[in-house]
Design goal:
It contains twelve helices and 14 strands.
């Protein structure tokens, strides 16, 4: 038995019926973007398509925000409150293997393997609805962010003055979630996605550095192997459910391979943590492990550590509000609690800046995981996502008036 209320159901039907008038056009845009994907900070064609549509629908459009990002601003009524909604626009360096779809990527080695083409389409569908009905009182800032897959686009837009030029009292984003119930909406309380950091550990032979050593030294490859083993042992012994650390070895590079004694070894890591306290503690622990192992092997090592993006933590007031709203519109059986994901998204940079907002997930149904060469976004999610964004704007910027939807 669904627990949506009659008022919420009326909102759902009203928005749905309006968007269904043009949903096929939006699906065509999504598939065109899928055919011609672009990598981080190269999304010129994608940005132009987005900007032209927003301009056509009456938005004040700013191009080139964060190099290739686009912001569409729409103001209505006299209310000073503002809301931001973000969609990411870049693709991944993956060679597509979807041979059964007519809109397969025409750019070799590049494809929309994570669903960003669908996220664009969802926000464009909502943008058209909001422009047509204007059933809100305040300012809507639609943010189309570049370079999400490199975790650098959000910071680039903020550096370009995103929130100085387009203030937002709240900000929201979404992603697809596979393989989860199709068109169900998954919401995390507080912790939502992990922080992502990078580390490069370089191991030297001290003979190579200083010309001589008092003690015999081990080969850098041996030292590197010991460091990896010690990191793994530390994580097994120290991790708890409240302080999970996950790390991935991205690369293991041996330089000067012919001379094993004087070789230099680089270990490249990605580190994921759920909170800033754990993030800082692990960095310190990693530095200790590297230094102690190097000393034990009479070698020298250094570590370069980069904080890439912070953990994504939803604000509680906004989560409570959006849950209540979405249950009333979609029904309680479609709104589900979600555990934090070990994946990362630099939307966290925006949310850390604004502090009020949330990030949610749409279930894709049974499909291959994102990032795979045969992934394709489920077009059925576009209508669901567009209803979600449209209803959220009307809820957060309430303006009671008669409305009209034109095809």
């Amino acid at each position: 038995m669904s627990s949506f209320d009659q008022a919420g159901r009326k909102i759902y039907i009203r928005i749905r019926d309006c968007i269904k008038n043009y949903i096929d056009e939006i699906i065509s845009v999504r598939r065109d973007l899928h055919t011609y994907p672009e990598l981080a900070f190269e999304e010129t064609r994608t940005s132009d398509i987005i900007a032209r549509l927003l301009e056509k629908w009456g938005y004040e459009v700013t191009r080139g925000m964060g190099k290739t990002g686009v912001v569409g601003k729409l103001k209505n009524g006299i209310f000073q409150q503002s809301i931001g909604i973000r969609a990411e626009i870049d693709a991944l360096p993956v060679r597509e293997e979807n041979n059964l779809i007519f809109y397969k990527s025409q750019r070799d080695g590049i494809m929309h393997a994570s669903g960003n083409d669908g996220h664009i389409a969802i926000l464009l569908a909502a943008a058209r609805y909001l422009a047509k009905t204007k059933n809100f009182n305040g300012t809507v800032n639609l943010i189309f962010q570049p370079a999400k897959e490199q975790f650098v686009g959000a910071a680039a837009m903020i550096k370009d003055g995103l929130f100085r030029k387009f203030p937002c009292d709240e900000i929201y984003g979404l992603n697809n979630y596979s393989p989860k119930e199709e068109k169900a909406i998954y919401i995390c309380n507080n912790n939502c996605m992990a922080a992502s950091d990078k580390a490069k550990i370089t191991i030297y032979n001290c003979n190579y550095l200083h010309g001589m050593c008092v003690k015999p030294t081990d080969e850098p490859i041996t030292v590197a192997s010991s460091i990896i083993t010690n990191i793994q042992a530390f994580l097994i012994n120290k991790s708890t459910p409240s302080s999970i650390v996950k790390f991935m070895f991205d690369d293991f590079i041996v330089k000067n391979k012919i001379d094993k004694i004087n070789a230099t070894v680089e270990i490249h890591l990605t580190i994921r943590t759920y909170d800033m306290n754990t993030q800082k503690k692990f960095r310190k622990s990693l530095e200790n492990i590297v230094n102690h192992v190097a000393v034990a092997h009479n070698s020298e090592a250094e570590i370069e550590y980069e904080y890439v993006c912070p953990p994504l933590i939803n604000s509680q007031d906004e989560i409570n509000n959006i849950k209540k709203l979405l249950i009333s519109i979609f029904g309680s059986e479609k709104i589900k609690d979600c555990q934090p994901l070990i994946a990362a998204d630099d939307f966290s940079v925006m949310l850390s800046y604004i502090r009020n907002g949330a990030y949610i997930f749409l279930g894709t149904g049974e499909c291959v995981p994102t990032g795979m060469p045969n992934f394709d976004f489920n077009d059925k999610l576009i209508l669901t996502g567009a209803i979600l964004w449209s209803a959220l704007v009307e809820n957060r910027l309430p303006f009671k008036k008669s409305y009209a939807c034109f095809t």
